[in-house]
Amino acid sequence: MRLMRTPKKVDIAITNRCNLRCRYCYHFEGPGDTGEDLPAEEWLRFFEELNRSAVTEVTLAGGEPFIREDLKEIIDGIVKNRMRFQLLSNGTLIDDNMAAFLASTRRCNFVQVSIDGSMPDSHDAMRGRGSFAKALEGLMTLRRHGVRAAVRVTIHRKNVHDLEGVAKLLLEDIGLSSFGTNSAGAMGLCRKNAEIVQLTTEDRIYAMETLLRLNKKYNDRINAMAGPLAEAKGWLDMEEARLGRKQLTSPVRGYLTGCGCFGQLLAVRADGVFTPCPMLSQIELGRINRDDLGEVWRNHEKLNVLRHRHQIPLSGFAFCEGCEYIDFCTGNCPGLSYSILGEVNHPSPDACLRKFLAEGGRLPDRALLC
Amino acid sequence: MEQKNPIANPLIVLREEFDDWAILFDPDTGNAFGLNPTGVFIWKHLDGKHGVEDIVKSLRDEAEDVPEDAGEHARQFIASLEQQGLVGYEVIAGSPA
């Protein structure tokens, strides 16, 4: 892997606090939930180092970033240090004043707002009463001020049958150009609440078929990096490859190649500790304003070990023994693997096609693809 | 009007990546422009103290096989940077705008 001198992008959990307690939140009760927030001064000093290191982009997440009273001061620091930014938010704390401020910076790539349903019942089931109306208001406020708003729909047991309504609300009624989807992953609070949150096999089959159908109906305006839509596309490709009808080349298959984060970004927990990714918050690489960013990025042993995980063949895992998809699989997200098994260098059981099929799953009709 | 020396826009980020190649990143637009190693060398000399001739002379001192028409190429390169707002020229107080 050719390594850039510094990361292009840094993902920051700017706070551990949140006004909601969504039942599937990956942050709370996960390794990134450190309980400590750094003062703005620490972040401002760190941004100066990012500037010197030619980092171009910062993601502010949490917790809920808009809960910080000093968020404007922090964003001013990003702007002053020649970077662009995006925020990941539940949307409920965004008001006119904040939206106008974001627009005035001219540096905001987007604000991602979580909208999980087309109505309060399906959204509020996991996020708390009243959160749907506030999130929608936040989304519309951003749009009114010309701030690019991206919507992420997290699919769970209580909204899986509302996908049609969500697509109509977001793409037709509100008029977004697209929206993203994933599903509640086995991390943080979701692990504790798995029985009421995580999709059953039947739910997954339904979600995959429905999302492919909707994506076709709306001309490919629904996207996904993980969750049922991404799985449907990825697994159909793997099946085609198994049947010898398709070649899968990028990323390389048959090895732990499911994650490319380690060559692009570095993450920072709310307590200022560097980690390889927000999904791998237990791997501590140093601390901001104490350890040199470039040194951590280029030379930290733990990070360089992760960068070589793509050389680990799936054939070496008992979990993959005898799998007919082994030559077409990437092992998927190391963060999920760690959360489920306590091992980073292992294929993630959550996104295993063979396991899904063994549990009664079935692949959607290929004709549903765009 | 007197020709001033070119100055890199201080807002633009030079991001050196692999093998002395780099990108120039404009945070206001999000646009990025690729630079080859010669482009990086020129960019680093756009400090308002060096004219194109000085920069090409430094380049000849540093690198081998610099072509005869390097000066013209450097001028065109700097002009294209100027068109994209990445380079400007010093304004002397009292001089015509």
Summarize, please.
With 370 residues, chain A is α/β, with parallel strands linked by helices. Chain A is built from 14 helices and ten strands. Chain A has helices at residues 40-52, 71-80, 96-105, 120-127, 131-144, 163-173, 189-192, 194-197, 201-217, 228-242, 293-299, 301-307, 334-341, 353-358; strands at 9-13, 57-61, 84-89, 108-114, 149-155, 179-183, 222-224, 265-268, 273-275, 286-287.
Written account of the structure:
Chain A is α/β, with parallel strands linked by helices. Chain A is 36% helix and 13% strand. Chain A has helices spanning 40-52, 71-80, 96-105, 120-127, 131-144, 163-173, 189-192, 194-197, 201-217, 228-242, 293-299, 301-307, 334-341, 353-358; strands at 9-13, 57-61, 84-89, 108-114, 149-155, 179-183, 222-224, 265-268, 273-275, 286-287. Chain A has a 10-stranded mixed beta sheet, with helices on one face. The radius of gyration of chain A is 20 Å and the shape is globular. Chain B has 97 residues and is of the alpha+beta class. Chain B has a 3-stranded antiparallel beta sheet with strand order 2-3-4. In chain B, β2 and β3 form a beta hairpin. The longest helix of chain B is centred in the last third of the chain and has 14 residues, at 70-83. Chain B is globular, with a radius of gyration of 14 Å. The interface between A and B is medium-sized, with 15 and 13 residues.
